[in-house]
């Protein structure tokens, strides 16, 4: 493989770029930390406030709001300007955090989660859109690599920090620890993001399409809590049809939320967005079912199971750093294809490890899965950003983290549907658990293979 190495990591720390890198990484850190902090502290909050039946909705409301916010982010950036859009979103996230931190009941927590999700969805999407605006092409993979390091650190430190605060202070402190971070982010936005008016207003607000996005993701989330498999299947199918209808309607609109060639097969943007969607859809199977499977099958405790899961995040960040200096388009193209291939191979290996009872193989495959994301994600994202048609780079860039979140939600729902049909919920013996896991990870590998096939349409440096 021929490679050309350009740019240095140290360049990100120069006066020209350091504050910008810190701003974008903090935007990612807010999203990542919030995810891990809340998942650890919320059970204690429910114990104090009551409303155990609402705990899943605390995640659902956040996810729906984040995806809708992300879908609307490019429009907000263009209509309000970059700095006002980021400041407004950060203030919404701050308001939601304060509401959650001082909530007297679970319904109030849900209101706070709504504001948190909407704010952070916009923050993450606009931060992505700023990458091609504020960095040259040679440094973009390094920025993505820095963000991967931040995500891995949050994956390790978030649950620990939340656990310590929840146990020794209060679950409320685990929410409110975000407040100083948000304040720093707001200050950095004021320092880094240009103040000049970059608004390109006009047009109507696409309320119907945004509502369709919200309804589609809500259906995906509901699929995980309905009592019967046919109901879950109907929810997933309805969600996919509704989201497809939103994309088709968007293509015919003058005020688009998405790039005009989104999800087509004849362009780098269209094919790239399929890969961005399918890779998280496939990997969601390990996020949802790997920990619980190895705990029941091999007797692992939560800590050991957590370490096995963390291998994926470590491998992602480590491999992203290793390949960040590659700038030759031919080499990037190979890595974009190799990434989904390693993901599919890793998922097949997870299935084989569970069947044969080989923990070392499982850990190796977790490394393969993380490496698949790490070696391809930055170049995939950069290819989509740079191939966007004139005037559509904001919408293409902002769609990437939104689509990633949506992919995890869809993948989790599909994995749950397969697991229930395969008898995972009623599995009492190792053989029954293995049977169900074989179906879950086998179909996940198939979805990863579809991502691999779609990757052949992605051409770095071209459209």
Automatic annotation (TrEMBL):
Domain Major facilitator superfamily (MFS) profile intervals: 20-463
Q: Which compartments does it reside in? A: Membrane
Q: Which Gene3D superfamilies match?
A: MFS general substrate transporter like domains, Multidrug resistance protein D
Q: Where do the TM regions start and end?
A: 21-42, 54-73, 85-104, 110-131, 143-161, 173-195, 207-225, 231-250, 262-284, 304-323, 335-354, 360-380, 400-419, 431-458
InterPro entries (UniProt xref) = MFS, MFS_dom, MFS_trans_sf
Question: How does the UniProt record describe the way this protein sits in the membrane?
Answer: Multi-pass membrane protein
Spell out the molecular function terms from Gene Ontology. Answer: transmembrane transporter activity
Keywords from the UniProt entry: Membrane, Transmembrane, Transmembrane helix
Report one GO cellular component.
plasma membrane
Q: What is this protein called?
A: MFS transporter
């Amino acid at each position: 493989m021929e490679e050309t190495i350009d740019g240095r990591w140290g360049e990100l720390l120069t006066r020209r770029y350091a504050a910008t890198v810190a701003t974008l990484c903090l935007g990612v850190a807010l999203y990542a930390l919030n995810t891990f902090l809340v998942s650890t502290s919320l059970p204690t909050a429910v114990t104090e406030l009551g409303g155990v039946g609402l705990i899943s909705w605390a995640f659902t409301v956040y996810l729906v709001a984040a995806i809708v916010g992300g879908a609307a982010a490019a429009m907000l950036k263009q209509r309000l300007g970059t700095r006002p859009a980021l400041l407004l979103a950060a203030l919404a996230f701050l308001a939601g955090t304060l509401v959650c931190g001082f909530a007297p009941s679970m319904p109030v927590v849900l209101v706070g989660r709504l504001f948190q999700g909407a704010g952070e969805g916009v923050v993450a999407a606009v931060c992505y859109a700023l990458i091609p605006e504020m960095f040259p092409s040679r440094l973009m993979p390094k920025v993505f690599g820095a963000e991967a390091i931040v995500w891995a650190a949050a994956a390790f430190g978030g649950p620990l920090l939340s656990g310590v605060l929840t146990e020794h202070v209060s679950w409320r402190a685990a929410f409110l620890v975000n407040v100083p971070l948000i304040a720093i982010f707001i200050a950095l936005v004021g320092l880094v993001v240009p103040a000049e008016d970059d608004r390109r207003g006009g047009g109507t607000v696409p309320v119907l399409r945004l509502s369709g996005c919200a309804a589609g993701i809500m259906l995906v989330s509901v699929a995980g809590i309905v009592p019967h498999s046919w109901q879950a299947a109907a929810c997933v199918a309805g969600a996919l049809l509704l989201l497809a209808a939103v994309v088709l309607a968007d293509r015919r609109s003058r005020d688009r939320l998405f790039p005009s060639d989104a999800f087509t097969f004849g362009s780098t943007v269209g094919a790239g967005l399929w890969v961005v969607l399918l890779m998280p859809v496939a990997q969601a199977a390990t996020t949802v079912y790997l920990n619980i499977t190895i705990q029941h099958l091999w007797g692992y405790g939560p800590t050991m199971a957590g370490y096995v899961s963390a291998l994926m995040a470590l491998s992602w960040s480590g491999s992203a750093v290793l390949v960040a200096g590659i700038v030759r388009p031919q080499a990037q193209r190979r890595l974009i294809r190799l990434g989904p291939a390693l993901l599919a191979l890793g998922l097949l290996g997870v299935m084989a490890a569970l069947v044969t009872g080989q923990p070392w193989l499982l850990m190796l495959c977790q490394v393969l899965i993380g490496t698949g994301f790490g070696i391809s994600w930055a170049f995939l994202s950069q290819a989509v950003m740079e191939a966007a048609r004139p005037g559509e780079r904001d919408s293409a860039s902002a769609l990437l983290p939104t689509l990633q979140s949506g992919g995890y939600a869809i993948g989790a729902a599909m994995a749950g549907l397969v697991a229930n049909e395969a008898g995972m919920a009623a599995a009492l013996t190792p053989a029954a658990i293995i049977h169900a896991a074989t179906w879950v990870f086998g179909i996940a590998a198939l979805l990863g293979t579809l991502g691999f096939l779609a990757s052949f349409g992605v051409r770095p440096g071209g459209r």
